[in-house]
From TrEMBL:
The keyword Ribosomal protein does not apply. Keywords: ATP-binding, Nucleotide-binding, Transport. It comes from Nonomuraea polychroma. PROSITE patterns: ABC_TRANSPORTER_2 (PS50893). The lineage of its organism: Bacteria, Bacillati, Actinomycetota, Actinomycetes, Streptosporangiales. Gene3D superfamilies: P-loop containing nucleotide triphosphate hydrolases. Pfam families: ABC_tran. Residues 5-230 form the ABC transporter domain. GO terms for molecular function: ATP binding; ATP hydrolysis activity. InterPro entries: AAA+_ATPase, ABC_transporter-like_ATP-bd, ABC_Transporter_VariousFunc, P-loop_NTPase. This is ABC-2 type transport system ATP-binding protein.
Length: 296
């Protein structure tokens, strides 16, 4: 199966600070990809590298088999909706569509006008007078009418209320089914991703922590609860993602492909949010340990 995005050792530095480093991922075609992580994790940097707005400091990246932003034809294949759902406050809805038609060679004017009508947006209304949800839908319309093979969305619903978020994501999913394009959607709201994504990338502290199909990740991650035990005593095929201990009890989140036979453990499955938080907790715990070592 072909890949929509491949990165090998990808890194981007701002001055002396790495915003993204050692990023190696391979996203197969045919997925709605959730990119999740806390604020400042490097999500926006990765997405800007993918759409050609930034150049790598280290490593390389290809999108749809080409270098991002390298040619007008390559640019036309990728749609991008930035974090602040950018629209021009002084332009009307109709003027946005005319601008989109001038800038995009694959522009589908019928699709754009049909969406605007379905959303109930008046073509004469200026974007600055629209609600946050309406502006987000207008930005999505511009991205969809470009007829991209890959649509990249950076925190498109972060500022919306729950009803507007649900409506935006529902429209996005309807469009992916109808027009069959790939999606990479970043968010720190795991509940949103849980509804729409079938491939997950967890990015924390500028590094990819885990990536893969959601069903496979959930099938291979488990929570173990039982008598206190040192992580080193677990079988070698049980990779410890996170660990919590009390005086008498240990709770581990592990990744393994093998069955778990130890009767001492109570084994429970994880939700997608549990999985994401486990990897975020792992990085937090490592940072605490490094800070303590520095203090010593």
């Amino acid at each position: 199966m072909t890949s929509v995005l491949q990165a090998q050792g990808l890194g981007r530095k701002y001055g002396k600070r790495w915003a993204l480093r050692e990023c190696t991922i391979d996203i197969p075609a045919g997925h709605v990809v959730g990119l999740v992580g806390p604020n400042g994790a490097g999500k926006t940097t990765l997405l800007k590298l993918a759409c050609g707005q930034l150049e790598p400091t280290a490593g390389g990246i290809t999108v749809l088999g080409g270098r991002p932003g390298s040619t007008p034809a390559q640019l036309a294949r990728v749609g991008f909706v930035a974090q602040d759902t950018p629209v021009y406050a002084g332009l009307s809805v109709a003027e946005h569509l005319r601008l989109g038609a001038r800038l995009n060679p694959r522009w589908d004017d019928a699709r754009a006008r049909e969406r605007i009508a379905r959303l109930g947006l008046s073509p004469t209304h200026r974007a600055g007078k629209l609600s946050g949800g309406q502006r987000a839908q207008l930005a999505l319309t511009l991205g969809l009418a470009k007829r991209p093979e890959l649509l990249i969305l950076d925190e498109p619903v972060a500022s919306l209320d729950p009803l507007a978020r649900r409506e935006f994501l529902q429209h996005l999913m309807e469009a992916t089914v109808e027009h069959e394009f790939g999606v990479v959607l970043s968010s720190h709201l795991v509940s949103d991703l849980e509804r729409v994504c079938d491939f997950l990338i967890v990015l924390v502290d500028s590094r990819v922590q885990v990536a893969g199909e959601v069903d496979q990740l959930l099938a291979t991650h488990h929570r173990l609860t039982g008598p206190r035990r040192d992580p080193d005593r677990l079988p070698a095929d049980q990779h410890v993602v996170s660990a919590r201990h009390t005086d008498r009890q240990s709770t581990f989140v592990i990744r393994t492909d093998a069955p778990i036979h130890d009767p001492a453990w109570t084994v429970t499955q994880l939700s997608l949010e549990d999985l994401v938080l486990a990897y975020m907790d792992k990085r937090t715990e490592e940072n605490r340990r490094v800070a303590l070592e520095v203090q010593r």
